[in-house]
């Protein structure tokens, strides 16, 4: 019988730091994040190296770069929003942060999404305009007691990755939402509009009574994490 060795690497998250869409199906507070997935293929590493190299043409301007993240769609990778970002980050050579640097930025909430926001804020890399594909996107007050309110913009509870910026201002982003990787939308030019015809321009980040516009992505937006 052949002997096999299995290596498990598991990170435990104190809080999910993510929005929950289905009220009847709550995500567990303590979520194990699997980060033992193999590194990307060599050609993907080369693609990402170009993205990270400031001396080369910015790969994010390439029309196909947004699809770089599509391989994660409809999976449950990461377990929650910050777990998804952590897995992407690890598989692609710390494209967003070094885990050691994140550990210094946790606050009493214990949320990793907020720690990542704090790290970017400390580096003056939080912006509210002109996002680019590949940048992080943060949202506040999307879970717990704060879900029905949106007064504390510093209460970061959700995070995703920008995958497309349309001419009409609609930002498409990928994130782990209710335990599954999906695409959602945000348009700050029309903050209180869910759809224009059949086109969704602002996704609901949580369910509110009577589908209040305050629960749209545009009204829970807390900033972009600009990747340099």
UniProtKB/TrEMBL annotation:
Check the record and name the Pfam families matching this protein.
NLPC_P60
The family database entries (InterPro entries) matched by this protein are listed as:
NLP_P60_dom (IPR000064), Papain-like_cys_pep_sf (IPR038765)
One GO BP: proteolysis
Q: Which UniProt keywords apply?
A: Hydrolase, Protease, Signal, Thiol protease
Signal peptide as annotated in the record: 1-19
The source organism is Campylobacter californiensis
Concerning Gene3D superfamilies, the annotation shows: endopeptidase domain like (from Nostoc punctiforme) (3.90.1720.10)
Please give one Gene Ontology molecular function term for this protein: cysteine-type peptidase activity
The name on file for this protein is: C40 family peptidase
Q: Which family is this sequence assigned to?
A: Belongs to the peptidase C40 family.
In this protein, which residues make up the domain named NlpC/P60?
A: 76-187
């Amino acid at each position: 019988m052949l002997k096999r060795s299995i290596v498990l690497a598991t990170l435990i998250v104190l809080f999910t730091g993510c929005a929950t869409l289905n009220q009847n199906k709550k995500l567990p507070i303590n979520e194990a994040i699997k980060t033992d997935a193999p590194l990307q293929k060599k050609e993907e590493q080369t693609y990402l190296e170009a993205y990270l190299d400031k001396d080369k043409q910015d790969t994010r301007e390439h029309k196909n770069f947004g699809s770089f993240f599509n391989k994660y769609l409809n999976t449950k990778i990461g377990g929650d929003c910050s777990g998804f970002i952590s897995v992407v980050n690890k598989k692609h050579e710390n494209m967003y942060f070094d885990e050691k640097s994140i550990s210094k930025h946790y606050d009493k909430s214990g949320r990793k999404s907020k720690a990542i926001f704090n790290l970017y804020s400390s580096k003056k890399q939080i912006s509210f305009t002109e996002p680019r594909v590949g940048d992080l996107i943060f949202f506040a007050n999307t879970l717990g007691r704060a879900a029905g309110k949106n007064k504390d913009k510093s209460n970061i509870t959700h995070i995703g990755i920008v995958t497309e910026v349309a001419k009409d201002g609609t930002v498409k982003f990928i994130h782990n939402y209710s335990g599954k990787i999906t695409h959602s939308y945000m348009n700050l030019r029309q903050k209180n509009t869910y759809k224009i015809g059949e086109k969704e321009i602002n996704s609901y980040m949580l369910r509110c009574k009577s589908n209040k516009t305050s629960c749209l992505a545009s009204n829970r937006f807390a900033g972009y994490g600009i990747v340099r």
